[in-house]
Amino acid sequence: MLGGCVAVATGVGVSFRDGPNEVRALVDVDLELRGGEFVALMGPSGSGKSTLLNVVAGIMRPTRGTINVLGLDLATASALRITDLRLQRIGYVFQNINLLPDLTLAENVALPLEATGTRQRRARRLAIDQLEVVAVADLADRFPGEVSGGERQRAAIARAVVGDRRILLADEPTGALDSDTGDQVLATIRAVCARGATALVSTHNPRVGQAADRILSIRNGRLRASADGAALASPAS
Ligand SMILES: Nc1ncnc2c1ncn2[C@@H]1O[C@H](COP(=O)(O)OP(=O)(O)OP(=O)(O)O)[C@@H](O)[C@H]1O
Ligand SMILES: [Mg+2]
């Protein structure tokens, strides 16, 4: 289900001060994300991947340029509106710190729904439906410490996309996983995209590139032309 643009960045720059120096983490980045697509963001360590995810999430404001996410101008919107947008429409999966250890998988997934006003019983039902999509519904009442790393990561993806979330940002979601478990996580991301969400996934892992609809390469904060995932990730390239 490919839709219109969910995010458009134009000429985005992000700079950090490091004493007297300016670290340019993003330089003149243009980006368009469409509804339902799975985009891999690939580049070496320090190239700006996490910074770009943070900008799209509205966690970090660009130093230059404009960024519009789901109709909101993130360079100028109030912090409150941005927080609201993130809570309701954007999911963020970090590499390790994701689920709350004292809540079951279902309770973890229900959390963002309850935080935005959904009643507990309905939140649980929606949470279990979402765990079904990522194929861990049978583990709904286990605690994160009682499931595997891959199952935890799939539950974290469920929590990131539950409700009416349109954008899934995932920073190295397969980084700590073996390749079979990583493939299950990728299948999960594909499943949520098939239901209309857009995924932007940072990675060093060529398998993520192969699974994606397209790849954005980033070097020294600059995006390079995107390519078809399978083509770019093949050994010939
Ligand atoms: N708060 C900060 N202050 C100064 N420099 C920063 C800050 N955050 C990031 N940087 C610098 O910005 C650049 C991009 O960092 P970023 O975290 O986006 O890289 P990355 O591609 O995610 O790397 P990795 O693959 O290692 O996670 C790096 O040179 C980094 O040192
Ligand atoms: Mg990073």
Characteristics of this structure?
8 helices; 237 residues; four-stranded antiparallel sheet; alpha/beta; binds adenosine-5'-triphosphate; six-stranded mixed sheet; Rossmann fold; binds magnesium ion
Structural class: alpha/beta
- Helix percent reads 25-40%
Quote the distance from N terminus to C terminus: 29 Å
Radius of gyration: 17 Å
Q: Quickly count the helices.
A: 8
The bound ligands are: adenosine-5'-triphosphate, magnesium ion
The ordered string of helix (H) and strand (E) elements is: EEEHEEHEHHHEHEHEEH
User: Which strand-content bin applies to the residues?
Assistant: 25-35%
Number of domains: 1
Flag low-confidence runs.
Answer: 229-237
Instruction: Give a count of the beta strands, DSSP E runs of length 2 or more.
Output: 10
CATH architecture: 3-Layer(aba) Sandwich
CATH class: Alpha Beta
User: Superfamily at the CATH H level?
Assistant: P-loop containing nucleotide triphosphate hydrolases
The CATH topology annotation reads as Rossmann fold
Order of neighbouring strands in the sheet with most strands: 6-7-8-3-9-10
